[in-house]
């Protein structure tokens, strides 16, 4: 994997770059649609590629391990072939999903013992096993196994959790050095900075992660309930320490304005379920602001959903029609709203990149954010 910076904004820490993987190039900053089980909910791969113009998508180790299982994925030739996707894929390690099981998991030095949400069966995720699973999935970028502490966490727990994550990271790196991707291409490892919302822990974790000299670095444990300003403070602190010549990935963030503010802090990569989850519930992110398409005010609005996007779905259906589909509980509504939101997110980061290259990113961002927050 290779990462090259093309430009840096002079009035913020925003940067534009190119990340090269075995399955193609990624222009940063970038948003990555979440395809947890090998599918972006309600959106087929052809739309993800041709309409939404996604350059990379996510899969999840925990979910793909449980179903369909690594045997099926290996027989298919990896996740790319299984889901017919020829562009880059990143897989989360499953650490967040194991964390979210709360009472149904037990942490130890060895790893995380958890109970499947599908059938109640018990499994152990060790750092080594998670690396082996991601080898078999075949993602271009794989994440180190970590623990994501809950928010709020007291200092003692956050420190203990961070130190465990660091020891697990060292084991991930050591184990990967003795294995190869079964599909014949290189996979990049991204470790994850933890430390909750404590500045000294975040600093220590960022320094440890940077010292591992991996292909890129991720910032985890944010957007889990902390105030926005705290998220920005922690992200800025991490970006100050993580190496400039490696891509920085802020996990699970967030709203359109969160993304722009974190781009300004030096983050390159983002993912979040918000555009698809909110879309399926009738909330649309558009170039003019946020729309609750179920509201009666859209009942006889025959204008396109979003003329500001270069997306066929957003331009060929009206707000009135989409509202009708939601009211009638038609499945097509979920697809149209998801395509709209994902197209908007990809449009937003492409515009951010354009303005970084032009040299006017900060002023553009400051003007855009109030518009993005506007409720229509």
From TrEMBL:
InterPro entries: ArchSynthase1/Queuine_TRR, TGT, TGT-like_sf, tRNA_ribo_trans-like. Homodimer. Within each dimer, one monomer is responsible for RNA recognition and catalysis, while the other monomer binds to the replacement base PreQ1. Keywords: Glycosyltransferase, Queuosine biosynthesis, Transferase, tRNA processing. Residues 13-371 form the tRNA-guanine(15) transglycosylase-like domain. The lineage of its organism: Bacteria, Pseudomonadati, Bacteroidota, Chitinophagia, Chitinophagales. Gene3D superfamilies: Queuine tRNA-ribosyltransferase-like (3.20.20.105). Belongs to the queuine tRNA-ribosyltransferase family. It catalyses: 7-aminomethyl-7-carbaguanine + guanosine(34) in tRNA = 7-aminomethyl-7-carbaguanosine(34) in tRNA + guanine. Pathway: tRNA modification; tRNA-queuosine biosynthesis. The active site is at residues 92, 271. Its EC number is 2.4.2.29. Residues 252-258, 276-280 are annotated as: RNA binding. This is Queuine tRNA-ribosyltransferase. Substrate binds at residues 92-96, 146, 194, 221.
